[in-house]
Amino acid sequence: MNTKLTLTMEKEVIRIAKEYARDKGQSLSEMVENYFKLITVNRRKIKPKQLSPKVQKLRGIIKTGENVDYKKILTEELSKKYGV
What's the confidence (pLDDT) of residue 52? Predict the structure, then answer.
C-alpha cells in the first residue's frame, strides 16, 4: 500500500534530484523510497503476507549451494546503483 509523504527541501536540491532520477529512468518518489529501503534494511521485518502475490510465488525457487547473505548483497547492489 502506497501512502503520500510530503518533504520540504531546498528548491535546487529538488531540481537536481529530479534530473538525476530522470537520468536513471525512475521517478523521484521511487528514488527516495529505494534510498529509505537501503538505509533501513536492518530495521525492517518483511512478512510473507506483505509481499505481492507474484513475489510470493517466486519465493524459494532459486537454490544456492552456500549460505548467502542476501541483505548484504542487496545493500551493495543498491549502493552501486544509486551511488550511496
Answer: 75
Q: Which residues lie closer than 8 Å to 69 by C-beta, 6 or more apart?
A: none
Rounded Cα distance, 43 and 66, in Å: 25
- Cα gap 82→78, rounded to integer Å: 6
Domain that holds residue 59: 11-63
Determine the average pLDDT of the residues in 23-34. 90
Number of domains in the chain: 1
* Residue 8 CB contacts under 8 Å (≥ 6 apart), including other chains: none
Kindly report the backbone phi and psi dihedral angles of residue 63, in degrees, each rounded to the nearest multiple of 5, phi listed first.
-110, 140
In terms of C-beta density within 10 A (0-12 exposed, 13-18 middle, 19 or more buried), how is residue 15 classed? exposed
Specify the DSSP class assigned to residue 42: T
Report yes or no on 56 lying in a domain.
yes
Summarize the chain as % helix, strand, coil (round to 5).
55, 0, 45
